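Hey, sorry to bother you again with one of my protein questions. A protein chain has come my way and I'm curious about its shape. It would help a lot if you went through both lines with me. I owe you a coffee for this, so here goes:
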Amino acid sequence: MFVATSEVQLGTARARTVLLFERDVRVAVTQRIHLAFDTRFSAAAAGRVERVGHVFLVVRGRFAPAGQAAQHGPICVVLADDEIERVGPKSRSFRTDGDAVDIVHLRFARDELRVPIGLEAGALALPPSCWKAAGALLDRTDALQPMLDELASAGITRGTAKVHAEESDRQRLLWDAIHPLYETYGATTSLKQLAAKVGLSTRQVGRDVKQLARTFGFGLGYRDALLAVRLRSAVLLLSAPGATVAQVATAVGYGGSIALGRAFRDAKLPPPADVQAALRGG
C-alpha cells in the first residue's frame, strides 16, 4: 500500500486528506473544517468512465443530493464513476458541508460490489461496527483491512479486496519520488525531473509510471491524477470563509487568480469567483 497526505489551511478553514493506493481498492480519507464541496464543480478525472463503484461514507457532516432533502451523517451511498470521479454535464450531483466534515471514500471494481450503484439507489444501512471501523480509518491507515472486512460482513462487497503487505523495490522507489508531489500539489513536475530524482532514464520512468498507474488506479497517469487533486482542492478552498480567489490560487500552487482561472477554464469549470459564490451561497 502506498500513502500520500496533504494538509492546507486558510483562516479558520482547513482540510486534511490521506490517499491510500492499493491494488484492489483506492481510498481517500478527508477531514474538513468550515469547507463545502459540490460535485457540480468537480474537475473530471482524465479518461473514460470506468467500471467501478465508490463507497462514499459521510461519517460526519451534511450530505445533500441535488433536488433532494439534505441528510446528516453518518450516511453511506455507493456512487457511479460519473457521479464522483468523471463528472459530466448530465451527472447527478451532491454537496457535502458543515462545520466539520469527515469522509471515507473507497473505490472498488464494479464486480467487487454486491449492492446497486448510483445516487438513485439511495443510502445504505450499515451496522455500528462498520461506522466504528470508518472512524478508526480517519485516524490510522492500518485500519484499512478491518474496514474492508466490515464492508464484506455488511454485504456491501464480496470480500476479495485485500491489503497487500509488500510492494516491489522499483515501485517504492518511484512512489518515494511521486508522493511528495501530492502533498505540495506539484502537478507541473515533468517526467524528466522525476527521472532525475530516481536516477533512471526518462524512458524507463515513463514505463514504470504507466505500470504504477495501471496497478494502483491513478487513471491515465500521475500528472492527470495530480491535476484533478489540485483543482478539486482549489474548489474546496473557495468555500473557505473570507478567503480570496488569489489566496486559494497560492494555496494550491498557482501563480495567482489569473492562472487559476485559466486552469478552471481548461477543465471546463466556471470561473473561480462564480464557483466561490455558489459554494458560499449554499
